[in-house]
């Protein structure tokens, strides 16, 4: 095993820029690692060996020609399969998109390529990003590198597992209700959900358009910030993209690493005081809050009375938007077509295709969403949920008048055994209890490793006001500087 795979993205970038190692060597070390362990981890749905080597060689050629390289040039990255990548299979882990090769790149992908980064391949996920364990992938689950009998979180379990297994130093995830932060927490890695609109949704296979947010996954806070800087910023191709400068997240991560939080006001959400959470998770959380106090932060409790309604509101809004977004998968435009034998009508072909192409969880959401949006029920369900969303936003706004950031455990429980929660959708939905409010509000949230409970990673979530992404990086880096990073047992 090459030592290169253990380095941070920041260190790899420096070594490549200085010529100490070539981008090709770094890429091949990661491809070798994937070949060695991915049979057991299954983080990847598709590995683009040729494309990766070619991209790495292009970086090496630029350097040889005397061009100055950016901080992440030549650094490999794994991309969640929900992101459209030109000419490379993009299935969102669904049978309905099997074999689809997009004719264009998502904006985040364009920016990754422009930064000279090297895409290793596409990572596994819950189908259409609906789930919390990656067990709803149509192509089989991903296994948590900390314990291969356990889930790596979801929906972005493949991206998080690829980091924990040292198959990639960086990855892209998308967070609609927690799918970057929750997998980060249960794999001992860092996952950041930027402010909604801070990163472009163009080329992201849509789940719930008012919530979907692409963001960085990494093993260190600084690495996440470096990737954040690459992918964030206004995009005229996304009408909800924010036309404002990107907060200086890299400087904030460096500042936080100094470990001084004097004058920072940290809020604990009263309503997240631990009901339903594992005692081991709450113990790590209390220790981390204690550590923040030692770094000089002032910790106070704040009340967010409507957070308790976040989960039900989310499970009306997200399915409603998904029922509309997924209407495009009709057997005509993309991927799978079933029953087109000349005897079935167009409508029958659409219905047979959707029956065969969508998994149970996706069907469940389409049915709930269609019901919630139908006339006569719209006001009672979707309309009510939108009102709750407003109240949750108000809770955040009022909290941020008192404190700079809010903190909570990222998840109520550590990585559970495969199969433990698939029989009861509600048990699966509970994984996002602490992450969903942030999505409904639109602010940024990050999960940073905080400790271990029974040998399994626990994450701390830091939530900040919209467009104050830098604040959460500062606090997360301070946490990292005192609690350190966590290395899984060798695979
Ligand atoms: N687990 C949540 C869901 O199933 C969130 C998913 C996500 O963030 N993509 O909807």
Topology overview:
Blueprint: H1 9-18, H2 23-41, E1 44-47, H3 49-64, E2 76-80, H4 107-114, E3 118-123, H5 157-164, E4 170-175, H6 181-187, E5 190-193, E6 213-218, H7 221-231, H8 249-257, E7 265-269, H9 279-294, E8 298-302, H10 310-325, H11 346-357, H12 360-373, H13 379-402, E9 405-409, H14 425-429, H15 436-441, E10 445-453, E11 456-463, H16 469-483
Parallel strand pairs: 2-3, 2-4, 7-8, 7-9
Antiparallel strand pairs: 1-3, 4-6, 5-6, 5-10, 9-11, 10-11
Glutamine (GLN) binds at residues 129-132, 155, 175-179, 207, 318, 432.
Question: What keywords describe this structure?
Answer:
491 residues; alpha/beta; Amidase signature (AS) enzymes; 11-stranded mixed β-sheet; 13% strand; binds glutamine
Describe the structure.
With 491 residues, the protein is of the alpha/beta class. The protein has a domain of 256 residues: Alpha-Beta Complex (Amidase signature (AS) enzymes). Helix content is 40%, strand content 13%. It has an eleven-stranded mixed β-sheet with strand order 1-3-2-4-6-5-10-11-9-7-8, with helices on both faces. Helix 9 links the parallel strand 7 and strand 8. Helix 2 packs antiparallel against helix 3, helix 7 runs antiparallel to helix 8 and helix 8 packs parallel to helix 16. The protein is globular, with a radius of gyration of 21 Å. It starts with 8 loop residues before the first helix and ends in an 8-residue tail after the last helix. The mean pLDDT is 97. Glutamine (GLN) binds next to loops.
